[in-house]
Amino acid sequence: MEILFIPIRTIREMSSLDYMTAGPDRTSICILLRKTCKLSVALSTVRGLCLLQVLFSLLKKEEGMSFNQFLYPHVENRPLPENHLLLISEERYIEQFHIQVAHEDGNRVVIKNSGHLPKDKIAEDFVWAQWDMSEQRLYYIDLKKSKSILKCIQFYANENFNLMFEAPLDISLSDSGFKLVNFGYDYHQDQEKLSKHLTLCVFTNHTGSLCVCYSPTFDSWDQITYSVFYFHKGHSKTFMPALGSPGSPVTTGITFLNLDYYVAVYLPGHFFHLLNIQHPDMACHSLFLTGNDEVVDMLPRSPLHCLSGSLVLDWCSGKLYRVHLNQSYLLQFLWNTSQDCEKMAALHCLLSCGRDLRSLEGKIIQWISETVPACHSFDLIQEFIIASSYWSIYPETSNMDRLLPYSSVLTWNTEIPGITLVTEEIALPLMRVHSFKGYWEKLNSNLEYVKYAKPHLRYNNSVVRREWQNLTAEEKTGKRRSVAYVRNILDNAVRVISNLEARNLEPRLIPLLQEEDDHQRLLMGLMVSELRDHLLRHLQGVEKKKIEQMVLDYISKLLDLMCRILDTSWKKHNLNSCILHFNRRGSAAESAVFHVMTRILEATNSLFLPLPPGFHTLHTILGVRCLPLHSLLHYIDNGVLLLTETAVTRLMKDLDDTEKNEKLKFSIIVRLPPCIGQKICRLWDHPVSSNIISRGHVTRLLQNYKKQPWNSTIDKSSFSIEFLPLNYFIEILTDLESSNKDLYACEGHDNVDAEFVEEAALKHTMMLLGL
For residue 615, what pLDDT band results from cuts at 50, 70 and 90? Predict the structure, then answer.
C-alpha cells in the first residue's frame, strides 16, 4: 500500500478557500491511500495524526472501503470530544462511525473503545453517490425495478440524520458502474475513459432550488446531449447543442458548475451555456455561446470538478478556483451582441449576479442611452425596468419570484441559434419529513407552489387600470367617490415620492417630480394599494410594515429607473432648463431626448405603470418644439402626447399671436378636456378663445332650457347691429340670466354674460369672413 501525506501547509491554504477548514484548536490532514483497486481516501480529523489508527483499523476490517469523511469538522465548543466518520464502501453501503477521544498527558489523545466503534447504517445497494461538504448532505441513487431513485440524507451536528426526499429520475444507470462524486479523485484514471463516462451531479442554492444535471455516455461525439431536471419547477429540459468545431477532438466530458442562480455547462472549445435555474421556463433567459467565442476559448482544457459553493477543482494541476461571472465581460458582450435572445440573457445575468446593483444599472442605462438598441422580440427599456425592479427587492423574501413579474416577456417562440431543447414534465420529489427549516422549507414551498398554484400568482396592473379608469370617468362626470378614499390614494403617492427622493443621492438634471400631476399620482397611489394587498394575501408570516416598505421600494425603483434613463440622455446631450420655453424650435439633441421619452412612454403604457409627475409636461414641451404641427397633432390624437394644464398654460403665455402661433394655440385648445379648456381659454385674449368661452356659457344656460311661447316683440333699437337671429338668441340668454341669479356664483363664470356672447360671436364671424 502506498500512502501519500499532503503537508499541513497545503491543507491550510485550501482551508482559506473553504475546501477544508481547521478550527483554531484543530489540525486538518488529508491522506490519499492508493490500492490496487485505485480507490482513494480523504480524511479530515481532529488534533493531527492521532486518529490515523482509526483509519488503519478500518482498512484492515473493511477491505472494500473507498472513502472516509468526518461529519461537521467545523463545529466548535462541543460538550464531548466526539467525531462522526462517514464510511462509503465499494460494496455499495454507507455507514456512520462515532469516534470518541479522551485527552491524556497534555496533548496526547486516546480513542475510547477503539475496537468496537458505534456505527449507524446509512444506505445500501446504491450505484451513485455525491457528498456536499458545506451543507453536510449525502445524495445517492439506488435502483428499484430498473428505476433510478434519487435520495438525500441530511446530517446534523447533534448526531441526527434524516432521509429528506425521494425523487424518480428518468435516466439509466444500470450499466454505468459504481461512481462517487466529491469523494476524492484517482489521478491515474484514463482521461479518455473519463471524457466518455456519464456525468451526474446535484446542485442546490439558498432559494430552494434543486437541479440534477445529467450527461449520458456517448458512442459518438457527433451528437451531444445533456439534461437538467429542475425539480423545484416540475420539469426537465434536454439540450442538444451544436458543436462549435465539429472536426476538433473532444478530450474531456461535459462539465457542470454551480453558480448560484445559474448552472454553467461547457465543453472546452465547443460551447458554453449559462442556464438560468431561477427562471428556466423560457430559453431566452439562459445564455448559449457556441464555437470559438472568447469565453469558450478562456476555459481550461483539463477536467474541472464542482465542489461545494462556487469552488471548482482542476484535476490535473490540483488547484482550487472560486468561479464567478465576469461582470465586465458580460457588459461588453451586451454592447456587442446583435441577437435579441443574447441581449435578454446577458441583461438578466448581469442584474441577478451583479454585486453593486446601482453602479451596474448606471452602465446598462449608459448602453441604452448611447445605442438606443432596437430589439424585435421584446421592448428593451420595458425589460430593463421590470427586471431591475424585481432584482432590487428579490432578496427580501424567497417567494418574490412567484408574486412579482421578473420579465416583460410572457412567451418566447423565436429559435435560439446553436441549441435545440425538449421540455418535459417530471414527477416531483416526495418529501419524507414533516418539519422543515432553512433550505428544506424553501424547497418544500417551491414544490407546493408547483402542485397547487394555478393560475400563476404574479402581480399585474389590470386591477389598477380598471380602478384608474373608473376614477377618471367619475372625475369627468363630477361624481367622485368619498373624499377620504381619494385622499388616501394620493397620500400613498406622496409616500412613494418621499421614498424616491430619500433614495436618490445625486441632484437630478431633469425637471421631474416637481409637478402635482394628479393623474399620475392617482395611478401611483392605486398601484401602492393594489400591490400591497396582493403581497399581504400571499406572503404569509411577513410583517405588514415590511411588506409596505417593499411596495414603496419597488414602485420607487420603477420611477427612479425612468428618471435615470432620462437624466443620462439629458446629460449626454448637454441640455438645460431653457428647453422648457416655447420661444424657439428644438434642436437635434432635444429631438433625441424626445425620442427616448417616447420609448419610455411606450414601454410603460402596455404594463400600465405610473410615470414620474411632470413627465407628460416635459414630453409635450419637447413635442411642440421638435415636431411639425401635423405630426404634433397626430401624436396628441393618438395618445402619445398627453396635454397637461401646466404645459398648455406655459404655451399660451410664451407664444405671441402670430398667424402660425394662433393656429397652434387653437389646435391645442380644441383638443383639451373641457375641465382644462375653460381655464386655458381665459389666458388667451383672442376671438377664438372668447368664442370657446361663450359656447361653454351658452351650453350651461341652455342645458335645462324648455322652449316657451314667445309673444314679445324685439326692440331693435336696443341692439347695436341689426342681425335678427343673433338678436333673438341674445334676448333669450338675457332673460335666462335675469331669472337665474345663482349662475354667477359658480367659479369661472365671471365677466361672461349675454353681452360677452354677442360680442364674441360677432368678432369670430368677422374673423372667419376676413373682415
Answer: very high
Q: Is the dihedral of CA 405, 407, 408, 412 positive or negative?
A: negative
pLDDT in tens, 113-132: 777 788 888 888 888 899 88
Q: HSE (CB half, 13 Å, CA atoms) of 282?
A: 17
Category of 47 on φ-ψ map: left (φ > 0), alpha (ψ -120 to 50) or beta: left
DSSP string covering 469-514: HHHHHHHHHT----HHHHHHHHHHHHHHHHHHHHH--S--SS--S-
Contact 393, 265 (CB under 8 A): no
CA atoms within 13 A on the CB side of 169: 30
Highest mean pLDDT among 255-264, 427-436, 550-559: 550-559
CA distance 506 to 76: 47
Q: Is 12 helix (H, G, I), strand (E, B) or coil?
A: helix
DSSP 436-461: --THHHHHHHHHHHHHH--S-----T
For the chain, give the number of residues.
771
- What's the CA gap between 37 and 601, in Å, rounded? 69
CA distance 525 to 86: 58
Longest CA pairwise span in the chain (Å) = 134
Rounded to an integer, what distance in angstroms lies between the CA atom of residue 478 and that of residue 466?
18
- Least confident interval from 13-17, 551-555, 750-754: 13-17
Helix H or strand E segment including 320: strand 320-322
Secondary structure element (H or E) that encloses residue 602, with its range: helix 588-605
* Residue 178 burial (10 A CB sphere; 0-12, 13-18, 19+): middle
| Cα separations in angstroms, 631 against 15, 180, 218, 540 | 68, 70, 63, 52
Predicted confidence at residue 689, as pLDDT, reads 61
Query: Quick one: cell of 320?
Result: 482550487
Q: How far apart are CA 346 and CA 341, in angstroms?
A: 9
Nearest to 195 by CA among 165, 215, 173, 222: 215
Q: How confident is the model at residue 763 (pLDDT cuts 50, 70, 90)?
A: low
